[in-house]
UniProtKB/TrEMBL annotation, chains A, B, C:
SUPFAM superfamilies reported in the protein's UniProt record: Metallo-dependent hydrolases
PANTHER family for the chain: AMIDOHYDROLASE 2 FAMILY PROTEIN, NODULIN 6
Name of the protein in question: Amidohydrolase
InterPro entries tied to this protein: Metal_Hydrolase
Length: 390, 390, 390
């Protein structure tokens, strides 16, 4: 590696990445790389280069040295060197350099074959755990299900997953938005909603091979309550995503009534990403005892500006409620870049307070450990018997 | 006091705290202290310590020296010393050290016996005035009132208060939200709304001793217009509050039509707290000649990060439209901490501009005086005959 | 000029101001000047001075030297010197000093006689182009139009404008808000909406000489699709404006479905102003290949704080998607002040990254050129044959 590569020793070591996905198992041309680099869809003639952005500059600064290049290497040089090494070697370098102690992998989005959680963990030298996507389980249950039998079938599958997974995840934000009613839906309501959904989706899977797509408010809510009943932490996609998301429906404040209803159960709720609503998420993390947050996905997309992001998220959020995630998907660079930028942003936040005597160096070090890994361990109860099997 | 305690001389002296509450008159154990420290409700097993947060670190840094401890004293040491001194001595120290010239006290929320405005003023060495909570007056009027007589009875009580109070306050944000129609409701509309409310609430007060709870849009609006007719400044709770608040309904932009309707009367409207919508409030303060704002409550909760908060609020808000408040409730620390952090944040904002020659030192000093006290004196016309009687 | 006047050489020269208006052609007293300085309406007794604000301090710092005064000159001295020079000389000084290479002038708002695009260009030493306001064209078409003929009449006028203008602009935000449905309205829908509007507006123009005011969702949407069909860039007013705007309806996220529908056409969409939703606009610019943004109007209103604004807008927005505009109207100071503050903010953003080695000096210089002018040239295809004729 180039001598300017950041060593994982800088900042809190052994980050727990509590929400990420898998790595693609193929070499990528420039278009393929750019499409996985940001949340943009296909590039148009007016788009300019994705490399000309905070994340593009961050890749050139922080990732290039891991491929033996000078910092700020030109995009073409970067991609050429990447192709030369091949995807397997590139993956190995970035995952190892991320300096992770554990990963929690959402296995519910796999548009192409990805590295499995266990293999990700091996490459990263970290313990790997699985997060189960609620809507994915429901969609897998749909074929052949009846309206009346749907709820029990889903519950049984989720209970099975709960034996090994460390958490569930809702993507209601992407489908209906986060304006979910707080009430646990009745059996009759779930059966009626399932009936409508199954009738609409029947045959579609047969025609184009795609799984039926769940986007019903009652069913999203039913799934969340199933997860709460199984007493595993529940992650919510919040805020920032790709062009499919209607971001105005993804403000975490829309979850307030549901969070209020879940709080008495004590089941942890984790608000993921949150940008540009990260201050809203910080408020919720302060006032609800079971609410946690991160700024994953936004951290690497904001590049150098991730310092402001972390500082703003920590305005109201108690330090015991803030976690690290990359939300990396596809590119191995993102596991490393997320971790490197997060370490820098957190260190900048903590050091600035020590610098002007707002808190002590000892407190800063303790908070770094909480946020880097201890909060995640407390929330997810990461134990050897829950390590991902595949 | 410890030598590192901040003296009130640092920054603009004689702050007017234009919105605060009373201090609890009892000693507090750790749970009692933590519950009053932030807007969080009861702590759960996953909560971690409230002390591990911006406000917790700020208490240890800035309040500990006032209790003769080293800065950054451990929470247990802080609470032990606090208990040793007793609540009366602690209250005396913090209120005096806040360096206030006047306080405007909202007397409409008193879940337990609190220090009265007059006593607060004595402890602080400051003039004390009263702010009357509109909904509290309406709720006091309800028992025995008729639908037809409600409006006149409320108006009479408010007119009585207007002889001594310096302002009114609406908590519509906490109940209905800030989406209030702009029109002055008709007599028939008020009487109908009062009838519905009184019918729903009748007996409740008898059963559990609680006052009936007003949350009707027409009645909130009626109260605001009563206050406007009495030509006293009207404060609105906006944004940040506790877990009871649905923050998405508390964006000050929702008040736009009502503010537009009130503007021709010239009656000052004061948007309180505002976080995380403080930029929205700054916009309203720029475009409406009678709108003012503060960042109370958020200032002490954000601790060191309150510098960013003040700077953002002052992006658009004219310097003649920004005021100081603590929104302190319960803990005497909060009167001091709010003032100390506000002084620091305002000084940082003004000094940075002088530093890079964006404005002159003389202008900075003049703006500091406007914001620290002159704006409040202009808005509230604070006069000796309005000093709080009790 | 005073030696402390900023020379246009500082920072990227030859800015393209891709959205501005005309300059008033008269001398101004203090009230007249203050009313044009910010987005505030008439000042009330409680308002304080508009000069006591970020923009007021910025005028005194940056504009005073252009009138041969010391930086931070007192407002009265500033206005006296301005009157002494006369509006024509003042206009000449500020427009020339702005250091522009091109201006795109929205000619659809002219409440009093303004300097024409061609004359603005002559004063600025810059190429001048015209932006045509969609609603203005529709309102000009209304008198005498029939419901059935309205669509074709508007289309014909817009096609005529498209021969010379470089872009269109929608002010739906000011009228209906940005919650526009994505679908292209049918001929029947447009004719029905036009019929309702024309019936409501008929006679009004006769009575008070005002043009009929369009504020119908279907018609705003129809106009946008007409512009898209003509394949010229479409500007949208977004966010920050005067007291007439309901800012909560001007969040650019409300445009998401419409942006998604326009994207396949490849027609550039430019989100103007955006404050305080500039992060939302940055997100849209990242995920939609044809979406661009600026922070005009806010830049000069925020004064020194415009540094934060530019930095936040560039968190997610690709550097190829960010443009400069002043949105200056009325006062010649605003063309200069917007440019001077933007140069400083962009330089601060880029220099800070070079300083901590987040990107190279060469990349910073390249990005400065993109944002200062190259992005605008690419989007608008500014060509000699499209220079403003009047």
């Amino acid at each position: 590696m180039h001598p300017s590569a950041q060593s994982p020793e800088a900042g809190p070591a052994g980050l727990v990445d509590h929400h990420c996905h898998g790595v693609v198992r193929r070499d990528l041309d420039r278009t393929g790389f750019e499409l996985l680099l940001t949340e943009a869809g296909p590039l148009g003639p007016a788009s300019g280069s994705v490399f000309d952005s905070q994340i593009g500059f961050a890749v050139r600064r922080w990732c290039a040295p891991l491929l033996d290049l000078e910092p700020h290497a030109a995009p073409d040089d970067y991609l050429a060197r990447r192709a030369e090494l091949g995807h397997a070697a590139v993956t190995a370098r970035f995952l190892r350099a991320a300096g992770l102690s554990a990963l929690c992998v959402d296995t519910g989005f796999e548009p192409e074959p990805l590295l499995s959680p266990r293999r990700l963990g091996e490459e990263a030298g970290a313990a790997a755990y699985e997060i189960v996507r609620l809507e994915h389980v429901a969609e897998q249950t749909a074929p052949g299900a009846t309206a009346a039998g749907f709820a029990d079938a889903v519950r049984a599958r989720l209970a099975e997953h709960a034996r090994t997974a460390v958490g569930f995840k809702s993507i209601a934000a992407y489908r209906h938005g986060l304006a979910l009613a707080p009430e646990r839906p009745s059996a009759a309501q779930v059966s009626a909603a399932a009936g409508r959904w199954l009738a609409r989706e029947s045959g579609r899977g047969d025609v184009d091979g795609r799984v039926p797509r769940l986007s019903d408010e009652t069913l999203h809510r039913f799934l969340v309550w199933c997860a709460v009943d199984l007493a595993l932490p529940v992650q919510f996609h919040v805020g920032y995503g790709d062009a499919d998301v209607n971001l105005d429906r993804c403000d975490p404040l829309l979850l307030t009534p549901l969070l209020r209803a879940i709080e008495p159960t004590g089941v942890p709720v984790l608000l993921l990403h949150n940008y540009p609503f990260h201050r809203h998420a910080g408020f919720l993390a302060q006032v609800f005892s079971n609410v946690f947050l991160d700024v994953g996905l936004a951290t690497h997309n904001l590049g150098r500006a991730s310092r402001t992001l972390v500082a703003e998220a920590l305005e109201l959020a108690p330090f015991g409620k803030f976690l690290y995630s990359s939300d990396a998907f596809g590119l191995p660079e993102l596991y490393y870049l997320g971790a490197a930028l997060f370490r820098r942003a957190l260190a900048a936040f903590l050091d600035a307070g020590v610098e002007d005597d707002a808190w002590s160096a000892a407190d800063a070090a303790r908070v770094a450990r909480l946020i880097a890994s201890q909060n995640a361990h407390r929330v997810y109860r990461l134990e050897p018997q829950r390590l991902a099997a595949r």
